[in-house]
C-alpha cells in the first residue's frame, strides 16, 4: 500500500545535524525525523545507552518492576508538574491513553454518562481512531467514518469559541470531561498557543473540574526552549502526553498525569512494549544529555538566531513570506495566502541545495532541527532558505 507520499531521497547515514544519502550527498537536517531526533544522529550518549541496554536486558514484561522505567518516570516527574507516568510506544498511543483517562475521569469523578472531550480546530493528535477523531482537521477524517463519538471542536486561541462550545454541550448539565490542546500547533502550521488564552482555559477547567490535557508530542522535550511547551506558556495541564523527541529516535510515548486525576488502575490499560528497559534507558540518556550539554540554552539561543535570520530573509521577499513564528527550535515561515509559492515547492528547492525542511500544511515551511544544532549550521540553513526563495 502506498501510504506515504515520498521525496525521491534515500538517507543512509547521519551524524549530529547532518545526514547523507545513498549517493554520498550531504544534507543539513532541519526535519530531524519530524521533531524527533533530539540529540541529532548517532549521538555517543544514545549509542552507548543502546549498546549497553541491548547487551544487558532489552525487554521484560510489565508484570515486573523495570528500574529504567522508574528512573525515566522520576526524571519526567522531577522536570514537570506531573506525579505519575505511563509509557507506551508513540504519540497517538499516548493520546489514546489520555482519552481513556479523561473518559474514566468523566464517568467516575464528574458522573457524566457520555463524556465529551473538546479539542481545537487545526489540531493534530495522531492517526489511530480516537486520536484521529480528536484531530481537528477534516482532511484526516475523510472516508474513515464512523469516527469515535464524544469529541467536539473549537477554534484554537479563541476563548469565546471555547466558551460557546461548552455552553452548547452543557445545556442540560455537565458533559465535558476534558479540553485537549497542543501548546503550539505543529501540523496545524507551527502556530504557538496564546498565553492569555491558555490561562483562561486553565481557569475554566478549574471552575468546572474539567481536565486540561496538553499534547506535548511535537513541542515537548526541550524543543520550545523549556522542557515542556506548557512551561513556555506558563500554564500547568492536569494531564499531558509526550513521544517523538522523548526517545530521540527510539519509539516511546508517555502519558503523564497529576495524582488527583490518575484514575487508571491495574487492568484498565497496558502495552506490551511500553516502557521496556531498552527504550527507557535510551530515553533517559536523551533526558540526561539535555541537562549535561545545556541544550535548553542552545535551543533558546539558536531559536532566536533562526527566527532573526528567517525574518531578515522574509523582509527580502515580502510578496512571498508573510511572517515567521515559533518557539525555540520549532519555527515556521508562513507563506502569504496570495503568493503562488507553496511550502512543498520551497522544501523541494532546499532539498536540492542540501537542506531538509518539512511543510506544516500547504503554506508553512517548518524548521525542526536537532536540539544540538550549531550557530554555523543555523546560518547555513538561513542562507539555503534564502536561496530556495530566490529560485532554488
Ligand atoms: N500529537 C502531535 C502534536 C503530533 O505532532 C503527532 C505526530 N505528528 C502525534 C500526536 C502523533 O504521534 P505518532 O506519530 O508518534 O503517533
Automatic annotation (TrEMBL):
Coiled-coil features, chain-numbered ranges: none
A GO term, aspect molecular function: N2-acetyl-L-ornithine:2-oxoglutarate 5-aminotransferase activity
Gene3D superfamilies: Aspartate Aminotransferase, domain 1 (3.90.1150.10), Type I PLP-dependent aspartate aminotransferase-like (Major domain) (3.40.640.10)
Residue positions binding pyridoxal 5'-phosphate: 91-92, 124, 215-218, 272
Record's catalysed reaction(s): N(2)-acetyl-L-ornithine + 2-oxoglutarate = N-acetyl-L-glutamate 5-semialdehyde + L-glutamate
Cofactor note: Binds 1 pyridoxal phosphate per subunit.
GO term, biological process aspect, one: L-arginine biosynthetic process
UniProt pathway annotation: Amino-acid biosynthesis; L-arginine biosynthesis; N(2)-acetyl-L-ornithine from L-glutamate: step 4/4
Keyword Cytoplasm attached: yes
Residues with N6-(pyridoxal phosphate)lysine modification: 244
Binding-site residues, N(2)-acetyl-L-ornithine: 127, 271
The keyword Cytoplasm belongs to this UniProt entry's keyword annotation: yes
Gene Ontology CC terms: cytoplasm
Keywords: Amino-acid biosynthesis, Aminotransferase, Arginine biosynthesis, Cytoplasm, Pyridoxal phosphate, Transferase
Top-level enzyme category: transferase
PROSITE patterns per UniProt: AA_TRANSFER_CLASS_3 (PS00600)
Family according to the record: Belongs to the class-III pyridoxal-phosphate-dependent aminotransferase family. ArgD subfamily.
Self-association and partners: Homodimer.
Note: May also have succinyldiaminopimelate aminotransferase activity, thus carrying out the corresponding step in lysine biosynthesis.
Protein name as catalogued: Acetylornithine aminotransferase
Species assigned in the record: Romeriopsis navalis LEGE 11480
Gene encoding the protein: argD
Amino acid at each position: 500500500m502506498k501510504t506515504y507520499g515520498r521525496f525521491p531521497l534515500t538517507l543512509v547515514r547521519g551524524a549530529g545535524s547532518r545526514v547523507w544519502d545513498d549517493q554520498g550527498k550531504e544534507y543539513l537536517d532541519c526535519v530531524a525525523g519530524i521533531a524527533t531526533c533530539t540529540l541529532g544522529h548517532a549521538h555517543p550518549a544514545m549509542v552507548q545507552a543502546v549498546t549497553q541496554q541491548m547487551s544487558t536486558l532489552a525487554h521484560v514484561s510489565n508484570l515486573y518492576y523495570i528500574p529504567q522505567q522508574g528512573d525515566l518516570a522520576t526524571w519526567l516527574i522531577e522536570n514537570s508538574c506531573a506525579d505519575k507516568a505511563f509509557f507506551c510506544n508513540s504519540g497517538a498511543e499516548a493520546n489514546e491513553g489520555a482519552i481513556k483517562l479523561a473518559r474514566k475521569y468523566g464517568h467516575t469523578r464528574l458522573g457524566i454518562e457520555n463524556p465529551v472531550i473538546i479539542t481545537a480546530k487545526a489540531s493534530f493528535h495522531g492517526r489511530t481512531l480516537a486520536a484521529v477523531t480528536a484531530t481537528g482537521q477534516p482532511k484526516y477524517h475523510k472516508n474513515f467514518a464512523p469516527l469515535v463519538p464524544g469529541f467536539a471542536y473549537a477554534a484554537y486561541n479563541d476563548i469565546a469559541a471555547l466558551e460557546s462550545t461548552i455552553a452548547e454541550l452543557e445545556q442540560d448539565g455537565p458533559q465535558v470531561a476534558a479540553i485537549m490542546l497542543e501548546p503550539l500547533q505543529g501540523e496545524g502550521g507551527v502556530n504557538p498557543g496564546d498565553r492569555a488564552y491558555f490561562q483562561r482555559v486553565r481557569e475554566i477547567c478549574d471552575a468546572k473540574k474539567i481536565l486540561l490535557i496538553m499534547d506535548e508530542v511535537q513541542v515537548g522535550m526541550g524543543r520550545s526552549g523549556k522542557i515542556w511547551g506548557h512551561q513556555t506558556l506558563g500554564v500547568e495541564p492536569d494531564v499531558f502526553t509526550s513521544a517523538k523527541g522523548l526517545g530521540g529516535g527510539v519509539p516511546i510515548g508517555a502519558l503523564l498525569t497529576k495524582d488527583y486525576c490518575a484514575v487508571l488502575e491495574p487492568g484498565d490499560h497496558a502495552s506490551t512494549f511500553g516502557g521496556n528497559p531498552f527504550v527507557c534507558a535510551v530515553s533517559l540518556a536523551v533526558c540526561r544529555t539535555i541537562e549535561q550539554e545545556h541544550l535548553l540554552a542552545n535551543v533558546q539561543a539558536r531559536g532566536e538566531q533562526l527566527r532573526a535570520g528567517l525574518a531578515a530573509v522574509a523582509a527580502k521577499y515580502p510578496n512571498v513570506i508573510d511572517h515567521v513564528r515559533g518557539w525555540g527550535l520549532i519555527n515556521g515561515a508562513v507563506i502569504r495566502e496570495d503568493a503562488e509559492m507553496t511550502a512543498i515547492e520551497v522544501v523541494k528547492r532546499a532539498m536540492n541545495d542540501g537542506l531538509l525542511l518539512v511543510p506544516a500544511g500547504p503554506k508553512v515551511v517548518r524548521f525542526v532541527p536537532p536540539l544540538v544544532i550549531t550557530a554555523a549550521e543555523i546560518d547555513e540553513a538561513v542562507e539555503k532558505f534564502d536561496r530556495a526563495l530566490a529560485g532554488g
